[in-house]
Write a structure and sequence with these properties.
The structure is a homohexamer. Chain A is 44% helix and 16% strand. By secondary structure, chain A is α/β, with parallel strands linked by helices. In chain A, helix 3 links the parallel strand 3 and strand 4. In chain A, helix 1 crosses helix 8. In chain A, the strands form 2 sheets. Chain A has a 4-stranded parallel β-sheet with strand order 2-1-3-4, sandwiched between helices. Chain A has a 4-stranded parallel β-sheet with strand order 6-5-7-8, with helices on both faces. At the D-E interface, helix 4 and helix 8 of D face helix 4 and helix 8 of E. Chains A, B, C, D, E, F: Its EC number is 5.1.99.5. Chains A, B, C, D, E, F: Belongs to the HyuE racemase family. Chains A, B, C, D, E, F: It comes from Pararhodobacter marinus. Chains A, B, C, D, E, F: It catalyses: a D-5-monosubstituted hydantoin = a L-5-monosubstituted hydantoin; D-5-isobutylhydantoin = L-5-isobutylhydantoin; D-5-benzylhydantoin = L-5-benzylhydantoin.
Chain lengths: 231, 231, 231, 231, 231, 231
């Protein structure tokens, strides 16, 4: 099975990290392909998200042509998922949807820890659309820029851990979702430090796409996700 | 006051129609500017919508620079509204949000009549996000292509009227929202033929932007709609 | 266009203030008429609200007879709106509905600051009915009596400002709705002091009625808001 | 224990009928007192409802002074309940709230059969506020005027039965709530004819008030239902 | 009328206490029967709850055979209510459903104070299912083991009172529901100490069953609660 | 990885069928273990469900002791899932939760086709709890007994196909969930006949458990799903 992990922002280092995270958990017979968008260097808010989508769709269309089986959109804002589902025949999953649905299978409530405050309302709106607001205690920000996760010597990981501990203490949540694509390598350490399931989007999205493809399922093509009309 | 009516698809005829509709209801001292996107010729589904947004944002950014007071995004799928709100300082409203909120002020329930079946789930999801699902009886399609509304000799308007009559009879709705940018010139005739308020998105969006600007209100800039971060 | 601003309580000074606020933002060709109810001196809770409605309806009926185009019910508890919509042919809007719907067009979340604690559950219930609970962070009280806003030397305005600052800090809201009819003259100052859109109900309700009338829309008369049955 | 059954409309015959229904089910040691409002002859829509409330509140206040233990507001539109709860110290229940909450204890879903179509949106809005929309299959009208239930030779009861049978067949509901104060004497016959619990509001409201009073419970007085402020 | 109060856990002392509480409020002509399950000694979480249900159902079936009129399941987790409703012909009510519905009739919002933290998500899920999440401010735990309520010299009752006072101060709730079967004897004292209605599940469940039986109502048998199929 | 597929009813043939379905889609390195409950021969309603849970929990506890990695509860009513999650350390998923969450990843709306009408409200309540009511068009019954699926010569499969076709035509759903454990072998045929994704619970539940285990995730143990308390 071939799965595309497509990073809609244009920072190749983040793609590489996501691909590493994906390969770490994928089955040996799953081939993980990486692709990088042509949009902004990081996705911080609605504008960045919107600007990243055409490049993302080009990658999805190319992969579809090449016979891809399923697609992970490696961004927590779930940009362009509906559009990707129109273009692809296999399953397409974004990080937020994958991880909050995973959290709902492992706990009675969860909180999300994201990077920047401006992403909070974006994520809240996604979770409302996914129908899981009643299980989401709070969307929190560790107040770190997305790219800080890539910097040497940054204390970003400690900030994330501390925010998780605050989430457990204040929100009484039972699991924590990492609201950013770049934290996959931290989950084991964070889970050990905090005692709760810490869920990384890339990891669970890859496994869920594997699961749906393995179950023989594809995206429905009869209405909302039908192939785009020819013009 | 200057209001931009920006059609995110690339069909100039639809822009012109929207501008005419806007000018018909705008105050004499409101200047209506029109702009046309660079995306698909019509917006039929998620893919078309996503592809239209960068061109839309370019128009919004240009208008913002030129001192626009408020913006109407003249498409019923409300593409890129969050991104536009980050770019613009004045109010930005899409047709779906404007018209379902107007309907909620004039009736206890409404149905939506759109063009193509594939737009139904897009609109349902928007209305869920706007919190008005409990007032929306049903989103219906008159099963006509978007561009048919522009064609001479098409029976599109009769199809729309008949679908409205079915909505009243079957859904027991009290108002009908036209789920498409190109029907503004039909509202008076449709309202007379059917006996209910028939709400056109361009019309009410223009008036609502006028209202918010006239009230001295602007888009909040402290978090979700803050100006895009410099990269 | 003629718009009636009807204050359902019997305090003429509040009517006058609302009319001034309305005229400040109305278009030059909109005539603002004021009317005062015969109910309690202020509306603080369900009982006061209920007692104010018959007097309110009498004013609405008189205005309807005299050919009014639209009506603003100048009280934040939105008393008798459904009944007014049965009596009037044009649009009728209350302050809470107008301002929370405006807030939803300008921000991803808002809080409400009202006067007395006992109004909090009334307003929460209204917002639940309007479908906007998911965007409303919190309804807060500045703990001031309604009529204190009219008193010389009261520190009511500072209390309101401080409550708004607390709302921004604690609720992470992006806009604030003033939950009272008597604060229209404070919005500019409050917005400057706090950095967020501060929304006054009279102001936005007048502009929204203007917008709906200007769009040629009237209240639906086929079911829920049909003219009262003759007895 | 003394319970007031107050009919907010001014048709004494309906009060008498409600009192008879109440006495039929009340405990022998419960004294049922009847009172009639000064509003419209029947409550058909928002306007009638609003006009009935001051008279209703006067009866409630008088009964409160005389030491009433609990109050049933004998109208299915639940007029002025919040205001009555401010005035009364004991429990106050309206017919809609009592009967849909009873239905939710006896079935997994229910439909409501009311008299006039114009009451449908009023009842839907109440049920939304009570949080039971997910259990309410549909609010239906048997298309009979409220007062027809009082008329000799009317076929109103057959119409109600037929609508219940349609509700069971089409809505797959498991219980039916009678959406009108005047049908208490029909429940046994309707239940036998249709095979489902048929719930009359007066009956269950009286029993629920008895239950709450018997449990030693009173209306909370610390905020939303606090005694009206002195002016 | 005969009402069974069945305690699904196997601690006879808790049954006795519930029966005493039930008899304290039941009408003189209501016979209260007690029964004790064969499950765990206390119900603390999903596992205990599940293990208690077969014993509970055996008691319900026996009582049904013996002609019981209605049933109270004396546990706040509402275990096996749907199954009991299939077995019984009369009304069946659990403590959580009874008390949150009672709270919704007496206040505009309530909080729940339960014993152990692990019961919080169980209760939150129940309240979500009952449709009352929008009125429930918070489910809190007084952090006491269920059986401590039975122990001499325990400070459990003071802990409960203090948690109620915190609920009023922090949650701004207007009523408090006691989220445990064993606190019925504390309600009067707690209500006096705190100034809000304090609602005990056994008390209100008994009275609600009395009310429904007294209204002549039984559980619907046409679908969701139909008698179990013979195998 | 070892996954237990536990059928909570006592019909060994259904277990075998589920195990076959599970093995058909599991990875070669996943070992599928089967277990059969001691409850009713089939689960048709709340009573059967409740009676099946202790036997189910015994199997889960035994498997947990033996080091199982994850568990599928092979019944569409999701019996005892919370209790299983307390007992197990790995992920536990029921068929309804697995398949409706899968459907939400592949389509914008789905319907469920179950066997008996009495299961409809059970499933509706589950979906409400999972937060997906807004995507579920309708829960339908093909009106066949659960065990008919096992009988030679039954026309059960044609009935299911016809109900799916009706769901597509009438509900405008884009995917169909099979609301029963015994239809796994029909999905390919049904999907071909109907043109939409047809989702079988066993299949997707096994793949989702594989996914969560493969992602290194376990059930949260800090509150709602903590190990049962010792008594």
């Amino acid at each position: 099975m071939k799965i595309l992990v497509v990073n809609p922002n244009s920072t190749k280092a983040m793609t590489d990290k996501a691909v590493v995270a994906a390969r770490r958990v994928a089955h040996p017979d799953t081939e993980i392909l990486g692709a990088t968008g042509t949009g902004p260097a990081s996705i911080e808010g609605h504008f960045d998200e919107a600007m990243s989508v055409p490049g993302l769709l080009a990658e999805v269309a190319a992969a579809e042509k090449a016979g891809i089986d399923g697609i992970v959109v490696a961004c927590f804002d779930d940009p362009g998922i509906g559009a990707c589902r129109e273009v692809a025949s296999g399953p397409v999953i974004g990080l937020c949807e994958a991880s909050v649905k995973a959290a709902s299978l492992l706990s009675t409530s969860f909180s999300v820890v994201t990077t920047l405050p401006r992403s909070i309302p974006v994520i809240e709106r996604l979770i409302h659309g996914y129908g899981l607001s009643h299980l989401c205690r709070r969307v929190r920000s560790a107040a770190i820029p997305v790219l800080a996760l890539e910097e040497e010597g940054s204390d970003a990981r400690e900030k994330v851990r501390d925010e998780i501990l605050r989430a457990i203490a204040e929100d009484k949540c039972e699991a924590v979702v990492l609201g950013c694509a770049g934290m996959a390598d931290l989950t084991d350490w964070l889970s050990e430090e905090t005692g709760v399931p810490v869920i990384d989007g890339v990891t669970v999205a890859v496994k869920m796409v594997e699961a749906l493809v393995g179950a023989g399922l594809k995206t429905s093509k009869i209405s909302g996700y039908a192939t785009p009309n020819e013009k």
